[in-house]
Design a protein that fits this description.
Elements: H1 3-20, H2 22-26, E1 30-33, E2 36-41, H3 45-54, H4 56-83, H5 112-136, E3 141-149, E4 152-159, H6 161-166, H7 169-204, E5 205-215, E6 230-234, E7 237-238, H8 242-249, E8 257-262, E9 265-270, E10 272-274, E11 277-282, E12 285-293, H9 304-325, H10 334-344, H11 349-375
Antiparallel strand pairs: 1-2, 2-3, 3-4, 5-6, 5-12, 6-7, 6-8, 8-9, 10-11
Helix pairs in contact: 3-5, 4-7, 5-7, 5-9, 7-9, 7-10, 10-11
Length: about 375
């Protein structure tokens, strides 16, 4: 089942329950304003305060460095998106990604389970970091909560707006930078764990081919190849490892008729254009290394290494991607507010606000344009 149906089912169930028990739940922080459903609580404020007060000096200096990293990342992601415009019709730099859903125009498919866990790590780390830094800057937290916008989940930490506006510029910069810097930090930790777990795999397993993990919808392979098949040959070229697979697949062009031999039989496929490079042929499959166990000293336990590698790969990708995106100079993203504060050191408010609004508008148009091109 396409993941979008799970979201729709969950959305309908949550809203029905919210409507039925609204009177009771409203006393426990539930707020309804269709299409937004929001739950607020004050219970976790003490937990955030304890983390912030554990080492206030560390958080302050860590985020002083974080401000520099955040502005460097802002320049990087902004330049990346702008410089991609000449090739936007071939490879859009921005696309929507939703765990478990095949999004038109996106070359990335995120598995539902791993994707939701990785997305939860993004939200928790991002929002709690805003809260930890706010407490460290003596800014009160009014509430913590969850929200549902249509079928999209989210989380938030709500600081006292008046205290935030009255705080020093450096304090506000640290608060706004905290979320994305925490995401980027978690991404670094995740990729280090991926490297660690990957290094342990050869101790227990040996590569013995390429397995199909997923068949892309509306692709040449749909209805022909299936998830779980082991690729053995492509047009007579033996596929024994990922290197063989990469070299063979990259040699084809759109319109080529290819014979694929698997452990379940041989199939003929006519390739289409690759969404990321129209000069290359597109099979419409996602494949990965297939392994056999060669050291069973720990029984089946080592198989969990593959699950951990995949989970932390998505933790890395989503935290890095969303963390960088949030630093774009677009209000109401954190990057937009950070740019506004930075410019206010040398410019008047009457100059800064229109300038940042103009930058936000231009960048917003570029991003929307890239997403629409991807869908088309």
């Amino acid at each position: 089942m396409n993941g979008i149906y799970y979201y729709l089912i969950a959305f309908i169930c949550i809203w029905i329950l919210a409507l039925i028990f609204h009177d009771r739940l409203s006393d426990h922080g539930l707020e309804m304003n269709f299409p937004i459903l929001m739950w607020k609580t004050k219970r976790l404020r003490g937990f955030i305060s304890r983390i912030s007060n554990f080492s206030p000096r560390f958080w302050r200096w860590f985020m002083n460095v974080g401000i520099v990293v955040a502005f460097a990342a802002m320049i990087f992601i902004t330049w990346t998106i702008i410089s991609s415009l000449p090739s936007v019709f071939e490879t859009p730099a921005v696309s929507v990604v939703i765990p478990g859903v095949e999004v038109p125009g996106s070359s990335i498919y995120i598995p539902l389970g791993y994707g939701l866990l990785a997305l939860a790590s993004v939200l928790i780390v991002h929002e709690f970091s805003h809260g930890i830094q706010a407490v460290g800057e003596k800014i009160s937290i009014k509430s913590i909560g969850l929200l549902l916008f249509a079928i999209l989940p989210g989380a938030f930490v709500e600081p006292d707006e008046d205290e935030l506006k009255a705080a020093k510029k450096s304090s506000r910069l640290r608060v706004y930078a905290a979320g994305s810097i925490a995401n980027i930090s978690l991404a670094i930790i995740a990729i280090l764990l991926v490297s660690l777990f990957s290094a342990a795999i050869p101790t227990y397993f040996a590569e013995d081919g390429i397995a199909i993990n997923r068949v892309v919808g509306d692709s040449p392979s749909e209805g022909i190849l299936k998830e779980g098949m082991i690729l053995e040959e492509i047009d007579g070229h033996k596929i024994t490892n990922s290197t063989d697979y990469g070299e063979v697949v990259s040699s084809y062009h759109p319109g080529d008729n290819v014979t694929v031999k698997t452990d379940e039989g041989s199939y003929s496929i006519t390739l289409s254009k690759n969404p990321n490079n129209e000069s290359r042929g597109f099979f419409g499959i996602q494949a990965s290394k297939h392994f056999e166990m060669v050291n069973d000293s720990l029984g089946p336990v080592p198989w969990i290494l593959f699950e951990l590698v995949e989970l932390f790969q998505w933790v890395f990708m989503l935290n890095l991607g969303i963390g960088l995106f949030n630093l774009l100079p677009i209000k109401p993203l954190d990057g937009g507010y950070m740019l506004e504060i930075l410019l206010s050191y040398k410019m008047s408010e009457n100059t800064v606000k229109p300038l940042v609004n103009a930058i936000s508008g231009v960048m917003g148009i570029i991003i929307v344009f890239s997403i629409i091109v991807g869908f088309l």
